[in-house]
């Protein structure tokens, strides 16, 4: 199942427009905050799908039965570009545990790439919802590699994937690999270049959030 958060106009559309706009991209604080906002909206929508339970709480005047999340999720992201989107999800699902994956594209002289993964830390995800934040879902290769290793830490009850911008090819690849995953994206761009970049896209989300890196 895929949900495109910008299909019906809302502030999500404005935030995506600002993420893409080269005149606004120079404001790193706003870029990161807009990524966070999309994560927050995604978290709100995901919360509607989480398993719930009835508990009793005491107010100043009475005891009442209320509905709460039954099992807290595990939120994960791919460093470093995914951190702002991840933080937005964590802002709302603030009782969740967290995991981190260090994966990157290793480019050759012709700017083609392979996926390298150097580091993963994650709690036990067995029997818990798993949320993976990846701001740019391009080919889907790095995301599939990350999820494959995350699943070594248990079998989640649900798999949620959150992206700000996705290519149609990336979405199709993820759906084929993980047909039961629920995908939440800000917007889908139809085109993917021969070198695996989303177009029109927005550029390098990591560089725009934190500055250009020396290694390529």
Which terms summarize this structure?
12 strands; 216 residues; eight-stranded mixed beta sheet; two-stranded antiparallel ribbon; alpha/beta; 7 helices
Structure overview:
- The protein is an alpha/beta fold and 216 residues long.
- Helix content is 32%, strand content 33%.
- It contains seven helices and twelve strands.
- The strands form three sheets. Strands 1, 4, 5, 6, 7, 8, 9 and 10 form an eight-stranded mixed β-sheet that branches. It has a two-stranded antiparallel ribbon with strand order 2-3.
- A hairpin with a 4-residue loop joins strand 2 and strand 3.
- The two termini are 34 Å apart.
The percent range for strand residues is 25-35%
Extended strand count: 12
- Share of helix, binned: 25-40%
If helices are DSSP runs of H or I spanning 4 or more residues, what is the number of helices? Answer: 7
Alpha-carbon Rg, integer: 18 Å
Global morphology: globular
């Amino acid at each position: 199942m895929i949900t495109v958060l910008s299909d019906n106009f809302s502030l999500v559309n404005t935030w995506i427009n600002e993420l893409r706009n080269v005149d606004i991209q120079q404001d790193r604080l706003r870029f990161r905050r807009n990524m966070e906002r999309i994560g927050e909206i995604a978290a709100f929508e995901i919360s509607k799908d989480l398993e719930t339970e009835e508990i009793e709480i005491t107010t100043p005047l009475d005891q009442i039965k209320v509905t709460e999340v039954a099992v807290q999720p595990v939120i994960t992201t791919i460093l470093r570009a995914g951190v702002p989107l991840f933080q937005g999800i964590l802002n709302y699902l603030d009782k969740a545990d967290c995991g981190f994956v260090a994966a990157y594209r290793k480019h050759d002289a012709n700017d083609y790439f392979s996926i390298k993964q150097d580091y993963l830390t994650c709690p036990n995800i067995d029997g818990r919802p798993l949320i993976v934040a990846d701001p740019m879902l391009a080919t889907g290769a790095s995301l599939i590699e990350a999820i494959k290793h995350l699943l070594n830490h248990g079998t989640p009850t649900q798999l949620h994937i959150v992206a700000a911008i996705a290519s149609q090819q990336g979405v199709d690849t993820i759906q084929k690999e993980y047909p039961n995953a629920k995908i939440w994206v800000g917007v889908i761009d139809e085109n993917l270049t021969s070198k695996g970049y989303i177009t029109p896209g927005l550029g390098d989300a990591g560089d725009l959030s934190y500055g250009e890196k020396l290694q390529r």
